[in-house]
Amino acid sequence: MFEKIRKMKNKKGFTLVELIVVLVILAILAALLVPALTGYIDRARKEAIVAETRSVVMATQTVVAEKYGAKAGDVTIADADKTTIKNLAEVTGTIGDIAIDKATGSDYNGMVKSVVYTQGNWTCTYTQGKTDGTNGAYDVQPKA
After folding, report:
1. Which of 40, 112, 114, 141 is deepest in the core (most CB within 10 A)?
2. What would the mean pLDDT of 99-121 be, rounded to a whole number?
3. Interior CA angle at 72 toward 66 and 78, to 5°?
4. Contact 115, 98 (CB under 8 A)
């Protein structure tokens, strides 16, 4: 009897059943975690594009204010201005439509009303005064 116990003590390593059980447990954990992680990744990408769009809106407002100060009239944004805005905001995406209008009850024709910004597979639209977007005034949608 003691001889059998000594032989079992000298035996090293895991049995095939033990290894299979560990692999099954790991597979179950991976199956539970992968969907949760992809959700976190998508949410982080959406938050990143909202942050970049905020930078674009602030840069646009800066350029519009400079143009308004220079000529004090109707302000329009040309493609060259979009390049300036992109450099000022330090973003790499594509700036789409920009709408500028007068603020309510004001003569100042330099209020940024909306900006469309696309980065990767996402498009974020800023609409001044809107509160029902995916992030308040910022509405994030998959790129069309």
Report:
1. 112
2. 81
3. 55
4. yes
